[in-house]
């Protein structure tokens, strides 16, 4: 079934439903193709307006369009946005595992009555017998397969259930197909069309170039600190941070939060409700940053994401391209920053072990492309577009780190000649790694068994290293002297341009590659940073004097105001704002607000007088699993749980639990343990210990307290009373 829509009326439909006056790029031609009932393949970068290509024809055509999409979050987002365009709520529905029986009934009745023009289904839901039976009874205008790269094993997000779409469509009843993806190499595109049985489809391919995006790769050294600094310098802007594991996502989100950044996690391990709440908060700008796993597509159509940071590098360039593509969809600023360490690549390789050999081979090929991109000193845009089979002809894109800070160039005619001659000598039947080993003169088992150690070029490039030769091959690929047979695991082939060069070699410039220093993985998120440096003695004694003065004024022992380790840390870090003061050992929000003002004012004057250069990158507040434990303890005490039960729940000994509670109280959080203390310490003892800390104690020392009080008291009783005293008097 096809519909003929004149120029005028198609624009009228666009304006009526979506409020736009003109189509973007290929949109109009694609929509006409769908309306004409022809199979359509759409390759359009993120932000190009893919969804309109099936939404508008669905509203115009008779029947219901079945939209197959892999992400529940994306479906919800699309359905919400569709409903905002059209008066009738039932115009778009989704059918997936998040619905209950009543909701499913409502969806089915809207579809049957003809109200619903678009029904979004996950491929898993499509395979359910009762859904197949239901869909057989309705009039289907066409099928749209979104995120179609999931079909291909060479795609970055392979989903086996996508392979079953065609047989199921045949079972339900055929109708025209439109397949859409934002990332596909020529190989993946062919894979998709073949699997869906649409090799004759009209193909619409938009340029992959996103001129408004800036690409940068940084060494992964102190990455968490760098990220916090970057976000603080871009206050109020929306951004996404990608990490490899769910655990890292949780830790990163927590670390950002304790450093005053509005951030939330988003990954497949969270329950559906939390995920959609977090997504909505990001869309509604209640939070600035979402931290997400690479494996889990965000499905968030937010036009003003201003930065995308990869804390961990993705497994493939398609993944990288799609994730960075979430920045700047409105055409405005989009900063794409990736932290790269070869250790991460080795980790990704480890993950592949145990998978089928063919899958490992594919995975390694895709990883190699990622390494090439990260280490290359060529224009990042040129490298990316070349990967997707598009040529970028500008010499300088002016919007990537390599173009803005060009690396040294060198004349590479002889080197290129060596590479090309070696590829020919091995009959174009080997991968880059083997060719490089020949040039280096490495007698590996494969080289010996093929007698390649007898070739003229064996060892000819031994004075250079492996990185150097990999870089020559990579640049020769982009310059089109050689090609990679991706069907056969990346065998190197010579192009016509390469043959012409060998016949008549000419001068050619190559660029030296990046060498990234390796950072210790901090890193880690949540590990206490080494603060380094010794305390400024002069400042320390001034801070102690101030503490005494404040204590006297408030009629409190000095250690209640700030403990010594906190003052020492201030004399190393020189905090001059309340935010910075919260980064000091043993100082939380409560303490900073209650006592901090005079201390930061003193430090500020001192820093200006002495012209001190402060360690501007204040120590990043660390969280690790401690913050989760801290939250658990506070919540349990609020619920008046026995301390023994809290300790058991977290496998802690009682003294360990008390240490955790002391840390919470010392950093300024008020805690009320009366319900427990009243049970285990009699009233007279309570008064006596409280009075001791109030009037006699010179310091917070438990040992001093034990010797000053008589033997009737256990250490535990004194510690409990000290917690009560510090909480009541200091917080």
3D structure, described in words:
With 731 residues, the protein is α/β, with parallel strands linked by helices. The protein has 5 domains: 7-205, P-loop containing nucleotide triphosphate hydrolases (Rossmann fold); 213-387, P-loop containing nucleotide triphosphate hydrolases (Rossmann fold); 411-507, Arc Repressor Mutant, subunit A (Orthogonal Bundle), CATH 1.10.10.10; 537-610, Orthogonal Bundle (DNA polymerase, domain 1), CATH 1.10.150.80; 626-730, ATP-dependent DNA helicase RecQ (Arc Repressor Mutant, subunit A, Orthogonal Bundle). Helix 32 packs across helix 34. The termini are far apart.
Number of folding domains? 5
CATH homologous superfamily name of the largest domain? Answer: P-loop containing nucleotide triphosphate hydrolases
State the end-to-end distance: 73 Å
Query: What can be said about the biggest beta sheet?
Result: 7 strands, parallel
CATH architecture of the largest domain, please?
3-Layer(aba) Sandwich
Low-pLDDT segments:
520-532
Compute the number of strand runs: 17
Name of the top-level CATH class of the largest domain: Alpha Beta
Shape: globular
What is the tally of helical segments?
A: 34
CATH topology grouping of the largest domain:
Rossmann fold
Physical arrangement of strands within the biggest beta sheet: 3-4-2-5-6-1-7
Strand content bin: 5-15%
Q: C-alpha Rg, in Å?
A: 32 Å
Percent of residues in helical segments?
A: 40-55%
The assigned structural class equals alpha/beta
Task: Kindly report the average pLDDT value.
Answer: 85
């Amino acid at each position: 079934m096809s519909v003929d829509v004149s120029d005028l009326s198609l624009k009228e439909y666009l304006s009526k439903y979506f409020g736009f006056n003109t189509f973007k790029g290929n949109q109009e031609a694609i929509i006409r193709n769908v309306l004409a009932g022809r199979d359509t393949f759409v390759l359009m970068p993120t932000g190009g307006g893919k969804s309109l290509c099936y939404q508008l024809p669905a509203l115009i055509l008779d029947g219901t369009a079945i939209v197959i999409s892999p992400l529940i979050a994306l479906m919800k987002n699309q359905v919400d946005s569709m409903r905002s365009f059209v008066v009738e709520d039932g115009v778009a529905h989704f059918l997936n595992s998040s619905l209950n029986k009543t909701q499913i009934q409502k969806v089915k009745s809207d579809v049957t009555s003809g109200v619903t023009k678009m029904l979004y289904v996950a491929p898993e839901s499509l395979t359910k017998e009762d859904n197949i039976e239901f869909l057989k009874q309705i009039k289907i205008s066409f099928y749209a397969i979104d995120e179609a790269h999931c079909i291909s094993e060479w795609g970055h997000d392979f989903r086996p259930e996508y392979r079953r779409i065609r047989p199921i469509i045949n079972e339900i009843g055929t109708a025209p197909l439109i397949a859409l993806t934002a990332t596909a190499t020529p190989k993946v595109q062919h894979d998709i069309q073949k699997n869906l049985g649409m090799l004759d489809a009209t193909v619409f391919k938009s340029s992959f170039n996103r001129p408004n995006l800036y690409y940068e790769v940084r060494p992964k050294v102190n990455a968490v600190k760098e990220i916090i600094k970057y976000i603080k310098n871009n206050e109020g802007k929306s951004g996404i941070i990608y990490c490899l594991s769910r655990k890292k996502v949780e830790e990163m989100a927590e670390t950002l939060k304790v450093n005053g950044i509005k951030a939330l996690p988003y990954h497949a391990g969270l329950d559906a409700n939390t995920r959609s709440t977090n997504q909505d908060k990001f869309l509604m700008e209640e939070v600035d940053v979402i931290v997400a796993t690479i494996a889990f597509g965000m499905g968030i159509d937010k036009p003003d994401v201003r930065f995308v940071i990869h804390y961990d590098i993705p497994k493939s360039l398609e993944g990288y391209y799609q994730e960075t593509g979430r920045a700047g969809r409105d055409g405005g600023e989009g900063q794409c920053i990736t932290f790269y360490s070869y250790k991460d690549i080795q980790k990704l390789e480890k993950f592949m072990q145990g998978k089928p050999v063919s899958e490992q081979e594919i995975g390694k090929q895709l990883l190699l492309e990622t390494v090439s991109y990260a280490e290359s000193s060529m224009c990042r845009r040129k490298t990316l577009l070349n990967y997707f089979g598009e040529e970028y002809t500008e010499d300088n894109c002016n919007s990537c780190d390599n173009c803005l800070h060009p690396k040294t160039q060198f004349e590479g005619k002889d080197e290129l000649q060596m590479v090309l001659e070696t590829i020919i000598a091995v009959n174009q039947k080997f991968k880059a790694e083997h060719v490089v080993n020949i040039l280096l003169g490495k007698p590996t088992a494969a080289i010996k068994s093929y007698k390649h150690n007898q070739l003229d070029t064996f060892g000819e490039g031994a004075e250079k290293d492996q990185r150097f030769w990999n870089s020559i091959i990579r640049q020769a690929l982009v310059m089109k002297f050689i090609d990679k047979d991706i069907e056969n695991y990346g065998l190197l082939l010579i192009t016509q341009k390469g043959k012409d060069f060998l016949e008549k070699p000419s001068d050619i410039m190559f660029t030296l590659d990046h060498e990234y220093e390796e950072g210790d993985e901090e890193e880690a998120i949540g590990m206490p940073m080494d603060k380094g440096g010794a305390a400024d003695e002069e400042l320390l004694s001034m801070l102690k004097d101030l503490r005494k003065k404040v204590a006297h004024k408030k009629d409190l022992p000095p250690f209640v105001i700030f403990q010594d380790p906190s003052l020492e840390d201030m004399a190393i870090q020189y905090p001059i704002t309340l935010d910075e003061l919260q980064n000091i050992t043993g100082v939380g929000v409560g303490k900073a607000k209650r006592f901090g003002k005079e201390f930061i004012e003193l430090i500020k004057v001192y820093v200006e007088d002495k012209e001190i250069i402060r360690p501007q990158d204040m120590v990043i507040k660390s969280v690790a699993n401690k913050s989760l434990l801290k939250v658990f303890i506070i919540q349990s005490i609020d619920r008046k749980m026995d301390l023994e039960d809290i300790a058991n729940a977290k496998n802690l000994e009682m003294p360990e639990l008390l240490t955790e509670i002391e840390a919470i109280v010392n950093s300024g959080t008020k805690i009320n343990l009366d319900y427990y203390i009243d049970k285990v310490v009699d009233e007279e003892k309570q008064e006596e210990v409280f009075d001791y800390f109030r009037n006699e104690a010179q310091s917070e020392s438990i040992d001093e307290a034990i010797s000053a009080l008589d033997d009737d008291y256990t250490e535990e009783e004194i510690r409990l009373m000290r917690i009560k005293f510090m909480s009541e008097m200091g917080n």
